[in-house]
Each structure stands twice: as structure tokens, then as C-alpha cells.
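Researcher: Quick test of sequence recovery. C-alpha cells follow.
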């Protein structure tokens, strides 16, 4: 695993080494992450299940190997959903600037799914949740790989994987409230949701929910040097800004907290479906998207001032 992590970072950085094999790429690393999380063995990672416990342990082991520290006493941020014991997985990398490290960029995704609570088809009753949201979880893990190796972040980075999203954003509601009570200086929250398939007929790679709320898309495109992020009318129609884990952070902190996605429900037929499987994901697309976003978040972490702002502030 450690060798692959280093190779991922080298690929992000555009470095070459004689040890790099054509098959050992960040695309294959993303495939590995999603394939484990969306495997039948984990039975759809429903909150409170043995499958989500295995998923959490997998993410914790990944952070531990990267030397991404637990944000709290342990990686698990525990809470209750009625009688269910649930937990977010939260790690962090301290910034390398004496002042800017007091400010935080939170990078998140939900790692739970609906488990066996879906319509069986042809004897299959497991909602594997590959695109929703093993792909977003893989994106966060890849970004943790990148920054754990490069250590280029001046601001501190928190990597948060949420449980209970499929039960009403419960994990992100819990964590956002807890961090607000601790007076975290949150600069922005970037959430990843369903990034496993490309958009059709768009001139951008992904959209940001709440596009008109802030200058996040403009700044991301400026930092990327290309049109990377756009506006989805479908996302506006379905109010996706309020339907993912960015929203509780926006309500608590009133700073730009938005979701990056390449699936607005118009380009994927298997939302909450037993066929949302790992073999239906485009790992070249996923890895190229994260490869483009990594240096963008790097720039976000390094600017002298908080350039990303709400438009009504």
C-alpha cells in the first residue's frame, strides 16, 4: 500500500522514476479504493452495519499509514442515530505556516450508503454505492495521499468521511456542530459527491453545487488555469446544494461550503440502485479530476488572504 501511495503522489507531481510501472497509477489506486468500499462483502455500508465498520477501519488504516493524524483522540467521531452507533472518520494535516495553519480547509465526502435498503433486482439486494459515494470517498483518500507526501499546505487540512448522510446528513450535522462549538476557523469546506462518471456535453469536468452562492468556481478555475468547474442547471433544479454534506457546514459557519460532483442525476442510471457497482465507474475520469483539483486546493491553502468568499458577504 505504501509503495502505491508514493507512486500516486509522484504521478500527481508529474515526477518520473524508474520504479514506476504502467499499471501502478493513481487511476488504479482509485479503482482499488472504490472496489473495496463498494464490494459485496461490505453490503452497502449502511450506518450501524458491520460493513460500514469495515469501511471505517479501512479509511483509518489508510490515514494511519500516511501519518495523517486523528483530529480528535481517535479517528472516529461518534454519534447516535436513534439507537444506531454511528461515526465519522476524521483526520488532519497541520499547515506549515505559523499563522495560516490556524485556518482550516475541510475536505469531505460521505462513506455510507443505503446497504440492503433497496429494491432487489435479479436476486441482488445490495446497494453497493460505488458512485454514491465510494468515489467521493476515494477522492478524499487520494487528496490525503497527495498532501501527506507533498506537505505543501500552509493552511491546515481536515479530511472528514461522513456516516449517516443517507439518513439525513446526520454525520455532517454532528461534526459541523461540534467543530463550530470548538470555534474552528473554517475557511472553506469542499465536499465530494458522485465523481465516478463524466458529465455529458459539458465544457467543464465537474460542477459545484450552490454555484451562484460564492466565487468558488471562479477561483478554482483561476487556480487550475482552465475551466475545470461549471454550473449545472440540473443541480439547481434538484437543489443539490441542500442535499449533501456541505450544507450543515454552510448553515453553521456561513462560509463557502460546497460540493464538487460530476453526476447531476442526468448522466447515471443507477442512483440508489443495486447496479451502482465499482465496474461501472470511469477511473481515468475520477483520477484526472482529482489530479486537477489537488493543486487547486494546494493554492487555496497557500494564499495570503481568504480569496474564496460568499457573494452576499
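Model:
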Amino acid at each position: 500500500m505504501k509503495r502505491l501511495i508514493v507512486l500516486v503522489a509522484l504521478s500527481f507531481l508529474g515526477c518520473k522514476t524508474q520504479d514506476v510501472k504502467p499499471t501502478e497509477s493513481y487511476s488504479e489506486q482509485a479503482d482499488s479504493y472504490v472496489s473495496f468500499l463498494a464490494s459485496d462483502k461490505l453490503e452497502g455500508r449502511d450506518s450501524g452495519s458491520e460493513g460500514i465498520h469495515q469501511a471505517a477501519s479501512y479509511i483509518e488504516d489508510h490515514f494511519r499509514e500516511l501519518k495523517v493524524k486523528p483530529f480528535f483522540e481517535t479517528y472516529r467521531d461518534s454519534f447516535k442515530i436513534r439507537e444506531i452507533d454511528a461515526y465519522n472518520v476524521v483526520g488532519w494535516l497541520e499547515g506549515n505556516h505559523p499563522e495560516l495553519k490556524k485556518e482550516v480547509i475541510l475536505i469531505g465526502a460521505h462513506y455510507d450508503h443505503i446497504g440492503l435498503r433497496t429494491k432487489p433486482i435479479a436476486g441482488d439486494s445490495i446497494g453497493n454505492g460505488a458512485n454514491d459515494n465510494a468515489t467521493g470517498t476515494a477522492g478524499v483518500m487520494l487528496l490525503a495521499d497527495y498532501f501527506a507526501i507533498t506537505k505543501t499546505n500552509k493552511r491546515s487540512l481536515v479530511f472528514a468521511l461522513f456516516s449517516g448522510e443517507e439518513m439525513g446528513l446526520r454525520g455532517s450535522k454532528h461534526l459541523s456542530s461540534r467543530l463550530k462549538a470548538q470555534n474552528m476557523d473554517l475557511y472553506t469546506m469542499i465536499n465530494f459527491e458522485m465523481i465516478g462518471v463524466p458529465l455529458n456535453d459539458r465544457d467543464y469536468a465537474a460542477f459545484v453545487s450552490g454555484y451562484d452562492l460564492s466565487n468558488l468556481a471562479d477561483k478554482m478555475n483561476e487556480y487550475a488555469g482552465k475551466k475545470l468547474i461549471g454550473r449545472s442547471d440540473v443541480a439547481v433544479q434538484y437543489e443539490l446544494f441542500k442535499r449533501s454534506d456541505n450544507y450543515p457546514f454552510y448553515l453553521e459557519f456561513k462560509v463557502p461550503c460546497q460540493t464538487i460532483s460530476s453526476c447531476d442525476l442526468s448522466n447515471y442510471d443507477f442512483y440508489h440502485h443495486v447496479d451502482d457497482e465499482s465496474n461501472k465507474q470511469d477511473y481515468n475520469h475520477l483520477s484526472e479530476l482529482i489530479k486537477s483539483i489537488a493543486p487547486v486546493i494546494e493554492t487555496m491553502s497557500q494564499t495570503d488572504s481568504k480569496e474564496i468568499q460568499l457573494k452576499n458577504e
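The beta strands are 69-70, 76-81, 84-93, 103-110, 156-162, 185-192, 206-208, 229-230, 257-261.
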